[in-house]
Amino acid sequence: MVFNYLKEDLLEGLIIPFDKPYRWTSFDLVNKVRKSLCNFYGLKKLKVGHAGTLDPLATGLLILCVGKATKQIQDLQGLNKEYIAEITLGATTPSFDLETKVDKNFDTEHIDISYIQDKLIKFVGKQDQIPPLFSAKFVDGKRAYELARTGVEVELKPSQVEIYNLEIINYNEPILDLKINCSKGTYIRSLARDLGCELNSGAHLTALKRTAIGNYSIEKSFNIDYFIKNLNLS
């Protein structure tokens, strides 16, 4: 992909898909792109926002909106999502992912691929899902993860989400790789937790990549290093 737009194009509004790096926050990527574009085009300020947060431990598609295109953020956030998830069975963590250490271990000898397939059926369709305590949900004006990291226990209200399809890519005990098509607001970490319970075991998310948002795909997104390098050379 080549980024060859005029300053006027930028200000009028652009939607730019990126592949967010591991350990970067969504705002890290926004700030990096904003700074690079301002430097290259000689702008003192530029509106840049993202259409749907990705956790630092997740990678993949993050849509950035520039200039007047920031008005489209809400519409883009409402699009369906596709993820590739690696879920480790037999262990849980307080954050439902690798942000926190394993707190409990469970047996997995009774689990095989057919048993997993039977249990996955329950998760297809509309459902009420309880978000992780380590999430960006607001509780009394504070982010839930801020309270969770200080040891404060809070009760999060369930949100209605919809999972359209769950496909087993591979199961090599205890690692399960899933392809997930779902609505906005779906927490894959919560799905991992709930699946572990349904399997009479435990589970947590150990890797996550967002591969599509609506018609936008990871295959047609920018790598940030490539973007900056080619922007400077253009």
User: CATH class of the largest domain, please?
Assistant: Alpha Beta
Report the portion of residues in β strands.
25-35%
CATH fold type of the largest domain: Pseudouridine synthase
- Number of helices, where a helix is a run of at least 4 consecutive DSSP H or I residues: 7
Rg, nearest Å: 19 Å
Order of helices and strands: HEHEEHEEEHEEEHEEHEEEH
Fraction of residues in H or I helices: 25-40%
Q: What's the total count of β strands?
A: 14
Global morphology? elongated
Q: What profile does the largest beta sheet have?
A: 10 strands, mixed
Task: Describe the protein.
There is one protein chain. With 234 residues, this protein is of the alpha+beta class. Helices cover 26% and strands 33% of the residues. It has seven helices and 14 strands. The protein has helices at 7-12, 26-41, 73-77, 113-120, 144-149, 188-198, 224-233; strands at residues 14-20, 48-50, 58-66, 81-89, 91-92, 104-105, 125-129, 138-139, 142-143, 159-172, 175-182, 203-213, 216-217, 222-223. Strands 1, 2, 3, 4, 7, 10, 11, 12, 13 and 14 form a ten-stranded mixed sheet that branches. The protein has a two-stranded antiparallel sheet with strand order 5-6. α2 (26-41) runs parallel beside α7.
Task: Describe the structure in brief.
This protein has 234 residues and is α+β, with helices and mostly antiparallel strands. The chain has 7 helices and 14 strands. The strands form 3 sheets. Strands 1, 2, 3, 4, 7, 10, 11, 12, 13 and 14 form a 10-stranded mixed β-sheet that branches.
